Amino acid sequence: MGPPPPDFASLHPGYVLESIMNCHLYLREGMVYLPTMGKVAEGVYRGIEPVAVVSASDIGEIRRALNETFARGNPPAQLLRRSEYAPPLLLKYAGVKTWSVFERGLMFWTIKEKNGTFQIAGQSKRDDGGWRPDAERTIDFPPNSATDDVIDRMIAIVREEAEKNRKKL
Predict the structure, then answer these.
(1) Which of 16, 21, 103, 150 has the highest count of CB atoms within 10 angstroms of its CB?
(2) How far apart are alpha carbons 10 and 79 in whole angstroms?
(3) What's the half-sphere exposure (Cβ side, CA atoms, 13 Å) at 30?
(4) 66-109 pLDDT, tens digit each
């Protein structure tokens, strides 16, 4: 079976780690995808089961999915060796074979909470193909904002973006 994989901190010395709640929300072709973000190490996450998939037009289901995803938090997830990587989790839910196909027309946000302060950050594509927070699409909530306020704002964003995309088609 071999030795256990090294931990993240030993592989990435000097990496700044912080403890936060981390949620990813993807909007693609009128559907919202909310994977559970498993915590590999402080500040390091990867998508794991369960994954909620709901229509962007169903406010009640988006609210339920966000509440359930927040309630699950970030359960522990194993650090994988490169040889253990599987195809990205969301591909099977979207019915596509590659991440590049999944990313076509994709909108992506992170929702983070640290010490009672929430942030929704829209993500933009980097030149190298990765994603980065978009300062123009970032909302910092006042400390101790209600979770329902964050969820209401995220739903409004999803609805607005889904409507824009629908009109483009």
Answers:
(1) 150
(2) 12
(3) 8
(4) 999 999 999 999 988 888 888 899 999 999 999 999 999 999 99
Query: Under a CB-based contact definition with an 8 Å cutoff, are residues 90 and 35 in contact?
Result: yes
Contact at 8 Å (CB) between 79 and 8?
Answer: yes
Q: Which one-letter amino acid corresponds to residue 134?
A: D
Residues 6 or more apart whose Cβ sits within 8 Å of residue 49? 35, 36, 89
Side-chain half-sphere CA neighbours of 124 within 13 A: 8
pLDDT band at 15 (very low <50, low <70, confident <90, very high): very low
Determine how many CB atoms are found less than 10 A away from the CB of residue 164: 10
pTM of the predicted structure, to 2 decimals:
0.86
Taking CA 98 as the corner, what is the angle to CA 46 and CA 154, rounded to the nearest 5 degrees?
50
How is domain 9-168 classified at the CATH fold level?
NMB0488-like fold (3.40.1590)
Q: What angle do CA 33, 35, 37 make, to 5 degrees?
A: 145
CA-based Rg of the chain, rounded to a whole angstrom? 16
